[in-house]
């Protein structure tokens, strides 16, 4: 498994000189055919896997992301180092300012990736060099995406959540022939963002897609805790304290604003001026607060017992499906409308880590064992059928190599 993962990530490595950006590049693409560019959270996951396999390559992956960091701290969701700009690239970027990357974010996994690297490879020079960049990134997130100081970050498009067509957002696209109009709905939002010059304050005022996303914020909370640990390693006690206070605030805010006591479940929150509404669809995002180390025990128990282990929802033969089985949109088969049923390795990675941190050893072990089985039997695929385990979507998919971070000895 280790060798196969290393070979995969090496095969997906892209190196050269970018004329578009006038600088050399070295990154790992998610999949050579389906996803040839550099994606933000994919790169972070690749770096986690590489931290176990080839630490120098893991650090290069992080530097590649940081090399396009804007002076205000922003880091983009896709970087177009080479190749023709895809049509969606034009729609999703601020073409007049930076056509070489999109103008959106992706879930803030960066500090977790750096943390994985320095845990395995005590390279103080690397940490010292990247740390100020990480601080700038987290400052940007807070300033641009939580100016109201709610503790929770806002996303302005489903692409930012990493779960593109998750049913959570169905009601935001509008309808056509009784189905969510993904393409027209999403394009209209992108065009409005273009008009707003991707200015967060204007996008918020337009109100088309303003969501306090559960997955995005659960990752943000643990990323802040990782920042606190990294600050401590550098002897910055004051900063470490501030990051851990901010992390605790995220958990409290999720509990206060995104928890439905009636359903024992977290839901993303749509904000439209004063109107705030939970997007009540059961998806893997609803379970992601399990990744938060300080989620109180009763909520951990409720999520695990009522939802994770529920056969009508998430406990399929190959858990954890991206959408609950009893959600009307659930589709276990491959589809271009992704995140509506199949099981993905990255969300399992978060859940396994979280369950272990909460002492839920047997549930974590069961998910881990089946996750390893998926990859061993069907290879590194983009996603897997939650009942049969069959692989779907892209082949040679980078972040499925995260399985190497799930076992320490032999697989
Ligand atoms: C899809 C996924 C997104 C991922 C990208 C590249 O858009 O939804 O999460 O980053 O593909 O793998």
Structural summary, described in words:
- The structure is a single chain.
- With 411 residues, the protein is mostly helical.
- The chain has 15 helices and 13 strands.
- Helix 3 runs antiparallel to helix 5.
- The longest helix has 22 residues.
- The site of alpha-D-glucopyranose (GLC) has 8 residues, from helix 2.
Q: Largest beta sheet, briefly?
A: 3 strands, antiparallel
Say which molecules are bound, naming each kind only once: alpha-D-glucopyranose
Write down the overall geometry: globular
Helix content: 40-55%
Approximate strand percentage: 5-15%
Order of helices and strands: HEEEHHEHHHHHEEHHEHHEEEEHHHEE
Rg is 20 Å
Task: Round the mean pLDDT to the nearest integer and report it.
Answer: 96
Helical segment count: 15
Judged by helices, strands and strand pairing, the structural class is: mainly alpha
| N/C terminus separation | 7 Å
Q: What is the count of β-strands?
A: 13
Strand order of the largest sheet: 7-10-11
Question: Low-confidence parts lasting 5 or more residues at pLDDT below 50?
Answer: none
Key descriptive features of the protein:
411 residues, mainly alpha, three-stranded antiparallel sheet, 46% helix, globular, binds alpha-D-glucopyranose
In short:
The protein is mainly α and 411 residues long. It has 15 helices and 13 strands.
List the helices and strands and how they pair.
Elements: H1 2-11, E1 13-18, E2 23-28, E3 38-39, H2 40-53, H3 55-66, E4 78-79, H4 87-92, H5 110-120, H6 124-145, H7 158-161, H8 170-173, E5 175-176, E6 179-180, H9 182-195, H10 200-206, E7 211-212, H11 214-233, H12 237-258, E8 259-260, E9 265-266, E10 269-272, E11 275-278, H13 297-308, H14 345-357, H15 361-378, E12 381-384, E13 391-395
Antiparallel strand pairs: 1-2, 3-4, 5-6, 7-10, 8-9, 10-11, 12-13
Helix pairs in contact: 1-2, 2-3, 2-5, 3-5, 5-6, 5-11, 6-11, 11-12, 14-15
The protein binds alpha-D-glucopyranose.
Alpha-D-glucopyranose (GLC) binds at residues 30, 35, 39, 41-42, 162, 164, 338.
């Amino acid at each position: 498994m280790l060798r196969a993962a290393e070979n995969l990530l090496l095969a997906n490595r892209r190196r050269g000189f970018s004329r578009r950006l006038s600088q050399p590049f070295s990154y790992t693409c998610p999949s050579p055919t389906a996803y040839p560019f550099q994606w933000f959270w994919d790169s972070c996951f690749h770096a986690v896997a590489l931290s176990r396999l080839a630490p120098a390559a893991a650090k290069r992956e992080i530097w590649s992301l940081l090399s396009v960091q804007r002076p205000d701290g922003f880091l983009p969701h896709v970087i177009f180092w080479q190749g023709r700009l895809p049509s969606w690239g034009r729609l999703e970027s601020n073409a007049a300012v930076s056509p070489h990357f999109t103008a959106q974010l992706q879930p803030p996994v960066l500090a977790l990736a750096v943390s994985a690297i320095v845990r395995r490879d005590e390279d103080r020079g690397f940490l010292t060099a990247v740390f100020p960049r990480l601080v700038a990134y987290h400052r940007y997130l807070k300033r641009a995406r939580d100016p109201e100081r709610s503790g929770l970050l806002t996303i302005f498009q489903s692409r930012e959540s990493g779960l593109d067509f998750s049913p959570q957002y169905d009601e935001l696209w509008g309808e056509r022939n009784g189905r969510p109009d993904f393409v027209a709905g999403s394009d209209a939002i992108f065009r409005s963002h273009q008009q707003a010059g991707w200015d967060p304050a204007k996008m918020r005022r337009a109100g088309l897609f303003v969501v306090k996303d559960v997955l995005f914020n659960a990752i943000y909370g643990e990323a802040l805790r990782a920042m606190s640990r990294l600050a401590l390693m550098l002897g910055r006690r004051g900063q470490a304290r501030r990051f851990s206070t901010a992390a605790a605030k995220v958990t409290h805010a999720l509990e206060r604003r995104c928890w439905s006591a009636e359903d024992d479940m977290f839901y993303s929150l749509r904000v439209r001026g004063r109107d705030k509404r939970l997007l009540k669809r059961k998806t893997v995002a609803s379970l992601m607060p399990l990744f938060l180390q300080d989620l109180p025990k009763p909520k951990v128990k409720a999520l695990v017992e009522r939802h994770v282990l529920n056969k009508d929802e998430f406990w399929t033969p190959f858990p954890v499906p991206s959408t609950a089985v009893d959600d009307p949109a659930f589709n276990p088969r491959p589809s271009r409308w992704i995140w509506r049923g199949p099981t993905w390795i990255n969300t399992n990675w978060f859940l396994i880590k979280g369950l272990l941190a909460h002492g839920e050893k047997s549930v974590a072990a069961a998910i881990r064992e089946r996750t390893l089985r998926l990859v061993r039997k069907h290879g590194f695929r983009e996603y897997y059928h939650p009942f049969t385990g069959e692989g779907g979507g892209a082949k040679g998919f980078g972040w499925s190599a995260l399985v190497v971070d799930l076992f320490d000895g032999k697989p």
